[in-house]
Structures are given as structure tokens and as C-alpha cells.
UniProtKB/TrEMBL annotation:
PROSITE patterns, per the entry: HTH_MARR_1, HTH_MARR_2
InterPro entries reported in the protein's UniProt record: HTH_MarR-typ, Tscrpt_reg_MarR-type_CS, WH-like_DNA-bd_sf, WH_DNA-bd_sf
Gene3D superfamilies named among the record's database cross-references: Winged helix-like DNA-binding domain superfamily/Winged helix DNA-binding domain
Keywords: DNA-binding, Transcription, Transcription regulation
Domain HTH marR-type: 1-130
Name listed for the protein in its UniProt record: Transcriptional regulator, marr family
GO molecular function: DNA binding; DNA-binding transcription factor activity
């Protein structure tokens, strides 16, 4: 089972990994944009935690994305140490375009499956998503509260 899952994730990654260069983005930058797209405005430290990198590394990544006009950063008025990060309109368009390109790439490769096989896969993914669902409560477009202990919504800064 472990080998099968590793192979599956590897194959999916290979299928979509070369899309980033079309947008002049590295995989980590795409991941950061995706987190912002799903979570809304959030703290830079939250992004670093989600990606699994240091705050210094996320700062470098954000410098590049801000220079490309894809994100904005603002310091909290309550605590100047806190940096809140948001997608710009261009960043939103870019992350949506990358996601659509990835979807189209996978869809093209999955055409080899029969309709029945696709329906079985969809049912399996739905069940796995229900079982693996993370403890995230999404609140409108403002952000998310993770495990009830970390506020990442800009409306509720520390």
C-alpha cells in the first residue's frame, strides 16, 4: 500500500511539475500562492509552518512574489512584528491559471481510464477526503482557523 501511494503521488507530481516554469514560478512559490488562495490573508509565520520552511526562507520567497506583483505584505498595526500576506488580483489570476493548467494536464492523462474507472476513482477520492479531512474551518473569504488555536484571518490579528 505504501509503495503504491508513493508511486501515485510521484506520478501526479511528475505530471504537473513542469507547469510552474510557464508562469516563472518554482514549486514552493506555487504552494505558497495556493495556501493564500485557500486560506485568504494570513500571517507569514503560518505560511512558513505550512510549507515547512524557516521564516527567513519564506521571507525570500515572499520578496520574489511581491516583486512579481502576486502578493502584498502589511505589518499589523497591533504588533509590528506580525506580517500579514495577501494575494493581489494578479496573484489570484495566476494561482487559478496554474491550478487550471494542472487540472487540464491530469485530465488529459486520465483519458485512458474508462468512465466506470473514473467514477470508481472519484468515489474513492471522496471517501479518502472525508477520512483525511484536516481540522480546518474556512470562514468566507477572510481566512481559516486551524485546529482552533491559530488565527490566520486578517480581521482577527493578535
Amino acid at each position: 500500500m505504501k509503495d503504491l501511494l508513493e508511486l501515485f503521488f510521484y506520478n501526479v507530481k511528475c505530471a504537473v511539475q513542469d507547469i510552474g516554469p510557464e508562469y516563472n514560478l518554482a514549486d514552493g512559490q506555487i504552494f505558497l500562492l495556493h495556501i493564500l488562495w485557500k486560506s485568504g490573508t494570513c500571517k507569514a509565520t503560518y505560511l512558513a509552518d505550512q510549507i515547512g520552511i524557516t521564516s527567513g526562507a519564506v521571507t525570500g520567497m515572499m520578496d520574489k512574489l511581491a516583486g512579481m506583483g502576486l502578493i502584498t505584505r502589511e505589518r499589523s498595526e497591533k504588533d509590528r512584528r506580525v506580517v500579514m500576506v495577501s494575494l493581489t488580483d494578479e496573484g489570484l489570476k495566476t494561482v487559478q491559471a496554474v491550478q487550471e493548467a494542472r487540472f487540464e494536464r491530469l485530465k488529459g492523462q486520465l483519458r485512458e481510464l474508462s468512465g466506470t474507472e473514473l467514477m470508481q476513482a472519484v468515489a474513492s477520492f471522496q471517501k479518502m477526503n472525508a477520512v483525511l479531512k484536516p481540522a480546518v474551518v474556512v470562514r468566507g473569504s477572510g481566512g481559516a482557523e486551524v485546529n482552533g488555536d491559530r488565527e490566520v484571518n486578517s480581521e482577527n490579528e493578535p
